[in-house]
Amino acid sequence: MYDVIIIGGGPAGLSAAVYAARACLDALLIEQQPMGGGQILNTAEVDNYLGFFGMGGFELGQKFTEHAEHFGIKPVTEEVLRIDCTGAVKKVVTAKQEYEAKAIIYAAGAGHKKLGIPGEEAFAGKGVSYCATCDGAFFRGKTTAVIGGGDVALEDALFLSNLCEKVYLIHRRDTFRGAKTLVERVYAAENIELVLDTVTEAVEGEDRVQTLACVSKMDGEKKSLAVDGVFIAVGMEPHTGLLDGQVKLDENGYVVAGEDCKTSVEGVFAAGDVRTKKVRQIVTAVSDGAVAVAGLQG
Ligand code: NAP
Question: Is the pTM of the predicted complex or chain greater than 0.85?
């Protein structure tokens, strides 16, 4: 019986592991991928985590893992198949065995929704990005496109318009889902060109992204947009299916938990991107890991 099982080897889970180890708790960290880091593994360079500007996401993930291991945490790489967390004893079932703990810190993260179009996967990290604040600076003075019509797409387009020569905002409808104030700012930006009622069919290029193949939903006209990068902002998907029916989730599937990371179930904490929050960044995930451990100590 562990004091706590931490699920997820991203910044939130590894931070929780460090704090749990230093609090002399018997902690088990279960991660799905053998190398810690979560979403940052896909980030070319992390420029906004204090003290580590310019570091590669992979390298930063390794540093986080080394830090946890230094304090005696040995991450277990197993896929979690089932969680039973409503009782006093929490059970976590993986493909290999069943673990028990007094508490769970759930830090399984979230993933960007994919478009599922040709070229999207092949050019990931070679011009296709899902995070303008992470990767936008690589496209300074260049031409980019943002795909989506929600708050994130609008914010990304505005953010990129300050860096890029030109930004196409491609949306499948002619009205935006995002906040009106953002829409007004997008319309006012001189270097954002709206490409509405348009579906992106493929990302094309040789070594890197060069063009986007698009089609108008109005008249079926096909067009090819020359771009250096494309930011896909069509929503997020939290990895919370394992908690469904046990822990309160919001309408988008995020675990309902406040800044104390406490969920609707005693002894279950949500940390990092799985939690209902406004700012999903490495720094806030790391913070959640610390707060969750403090919470389970009472
Ligand atoms: P979102 O609000 O769900 O918007 C996703 C956008 O992507 C929608 O415009 C949608 O088009 C489009 N889309 C979805 N699937 C697509 C596909 N297969 N092909 C083309 N377009 C597709 O997602 P989000 O912008 O990531 O925001 C997530 C949540 O965070 C929202 O609740 C948002 O309000 C919130 N948020 C708030 C703020 C803020 O308050 N400042 C900032 C960021 C995020 P349709 O419109 O046609 O469905």
Answer: no
